[in-house]
Automatic annotation (TrEMBL):
<dbReference type="InterPro" id="IPR003994">
    <property type="entry name" value="UXT"/>
</dbReference>
<dbReference type="GO" id="GO:0000122">
    <property type="term" value="P:negative regulation of transcription by RNA polymerase II"/>
</dbReference>
<dbReference type="GO" id="GO:0045944">
    <property type="term" value="P:positive regulation of transcription by RNA polymerase II"/>
</dbReference>
<comment type="similarity">
    <text>Belongs to the UXT family.</text>
</comment>
<dbReference type="InterPro" id="IPR004127">
    <property type="entry name" value="Prefoldin_subunit_alpha"/>
</dbReference>
<dbReference type="InterPro" id="IPR009053">
    <property type="entry name" value="Prefoldin"/>
</dbReference>
<dbReference type="GO" id="GO:0003714">
    <property type="term" value="F:transcription corepressor activity"/>
</dbReference>
<protein>
    <recommendedName>
        <fullName>Protein UXT</fullName>
    </recommendedName>
</protein>
<dbReference type="Pfam" id="PF02996">
    <property type="entry name" value="Prefoldin"/>
</dbReference>
<dbReference type="GO" id="GO:0016592">
    <property type="term" value="C:mediator complex"/>
</dbReference>
Length: 151
């Protein structure tokens, strides 16, 4: 009887360890990755809005004054002498100059691709959350058995 209780307590500890060290850390990693992808989507959508605004106001090919964020919400005034070409992050730290029309096409494709990646991360996080619920339910059952055995 004491050996069974000891084995049961070991199982409970292994499940708790698996839950805390594997499942929850995997969930945190997936959520962090998804948040980074969502930030990239937001940045591309912001760029799209700026490009469309330049096109609507017929400011393409004209000089422009703007505020640039240097980080930590510290802004400086910047002067852009030529807005006919836009530097766009195409991935892996590479930037290329594109026209406004090319930039809009690229942004749409990139955002769609990033949305697919975000959806995959979301699906993976749902699976991990389901595993967490399943392990928690198993732990509850084992703890009930342990409580009944010690009573």
């Amino acid at each position: 009887m004491a050996g069974d209780i000891h084995k049961l307590n070991e199982k409970i500890l292994k499940y708790e360890e698996f839950l805390n060290e594997t499942l929850r850390s995997d969930l945190n990693r997936i959520v962090t990755c998804r948040d980074e992808v969502c930030k990239q989507i937001s940045d591309y959508l912001q760029l799209r809005n700026i490009v469309e605004s330049l096109q609507i106001t017929d400011q393409i090919d004209k000089p422009m004054k703007t505020l640039m964020n240097l980080g930590s919400d510290f802004y400086v005034q910047a002067f852009v002498p030529d807005t006919s070409k836009i530097c766009v992050n195409v991935g892996l730290g590479y930037y290329t100059e594109l026209t406004a029309d090319e930039a809009l096409i690229f942004i749409e494709r990139r955002v769609n691709s990033l949305k697919e990646i975000s959806n995959k991360f979301t699906q993976e996080s749902v699976k991990i959350k389901a595993h967490i619920r399943m392990v928690l339910e198993g732990l509850r059952e084992l703890q009930l058995i342990d409580n009944e055995a010690t009573s």
